[in-house]
Design goal:
Keywords: DNA-binding, Transcription, Transcription regulation. Residues 1-24 have a biased composition (Polar residues). Residues 1-37 are annotated as: Disordered. Residues 36-96 form the HTH iclR-type domain. This protein is an alpha+beta fold. It has 2 domains: 38-100, Winged helix-like DNA-binding domain superfamily/Winged helix DNA-binding domain (Arc Repressor Mutant, subunit A), CATH 1.10.10; 107-283, GAF domain (Beta-Lactamase, 2-Layer Sandwich), CATH 3.30.450. The protein contains 9 helices and 9 strands. The strands form 2 sheets. A 6-stranded antiparallel sheet has the order 6-5-4-9-8-7, sandwiched between helices. Strand 2 and strand 3 form a beta hairpin. Helix 1 packs across helix 2 and helix 2 (58-65) crosses helix 3.
Length: 286
């Protein structure tokens, strides 16, 4: 497998929620942080919040949004007035109004994907008693749509709504292996190794994605966090396109990914079957 190079690199933004059909979610470019419009700057402030950084002070928000602290403070006051942001003491967090707007979105759906996948994810957890994840691809990242874990859940950076560099995770590589050449080129030119075991070169990425294409199984060997290992498989639509992926993750001292190959294959196929049936029902009802 050869990954073409490109001089540009797109960064994803936005999360697709509730809708009527399941499809691959692709990222959109972030607004230019140097834009002179107040709207772009306010959006940069809102985009600085993540599942791992839901509450921050003005200095950290300004730094993440690449804006002067005075500008961030002024715009945050406006966002607080509009209930887009909540202020408690000296810290800010996303406001209730954002939840209301999010419920109105009509973009292609992670909600429906979660609904059809949940029974199979629960089955997978019962089979393994390890952490189970469901992801879609968002630009260059794996976007975590659902996660199931028990009392022995692993210490992982993954949580629902989080984005992790796809090349660093088994579930992300399962998605990348069947992505377009444009996506692969962007990822290849923007590798972000998280550990000494992470993929660090385009050649290494191409070699591993080729193996995933042949086997249909992807692995994470302590590539997102030391001590954490993972196995993943893609979920296909009726057209054969990969729309999502499922994974099992666990600590290296306890979890043996190779032993979970039959289970991950069966669950990925089960989720795909339900997604395909749902898509076909929606197609014939139009």
């Amino acid at each position: 497998m050869t990954i073409p190079s490109t001089a540009t690199s797109a960064r994803p933004t936005g999360t697709a929620r509730s809708g009527t059909s399941i499809q691959l979610i692709t990222g959109r470019d972030h607004p230019d942080p140097d834009s002179s419009t107040s709207v772009a700057k306010a959006l940069a402030l809102l985009s600085s919040f993540t599942p791992h950084h839901p509450t921050m002070g003005v200095s950290e928000i300004a730094r993440r949004a690449q804006l002067p602290k005075s500008t961030a403070h002024r715009l945050l006051a406006v966002l607080v007035d509009w209930e887009m942001v909540t202020k408690r003491g000296t810290e800010y967090s996303p406001g209730a109004r954002l939840n209301e707007l999010g419920a109105l979105t009509k973009h292609p759906d992670t909600q429906e994907l979660r609904r059809v996948a949940l029974p199979h994810l629960l089955d997978l957890y019962e089979m393994t008693h390890e952490t189970v994840n469901l992801c879609v691809l968002a630009g260059e990242d794996a976007l975590y749509v659902d996660k199931i874990h028990g009392h022995n859940g692993v210490n992982s950076p993954a949580c629902i709504g989080a984005r992790l560099p796809a090349a660093n995770t088994a579930i992300g590589k399962a998605l990348l292996a069947f992505s377009s050449t444009d996506v692969l080129a962007r990822v290849s030119n923007n590798l972000r190794p998280a550990t000494s075991s992470s993929i660090a070169s385009p050649t290494q990425l191409a070699r591993e994605l080729t193996m995933i294409q042949r086997s249909g199984i992807a692995y994470d060997r302590q590539e997102i966090r030391p001590g954490l290992t993972c196995i993943a498989a893609p979920v296909r639509s009726w057209s054969g396109a990969v729309i999502a992926a499922v994974s099992i993750s666990g600590p290296v001292h306890r979890f043996r990914p190779a032993n979970a190959v039959p289970a991950i294959r069966a669950v990925a196929a089960g989720v795909a079957k339900l997604a395909q049936e749902m898509s076909w029902q929606q197609h014939i009802s139009v």
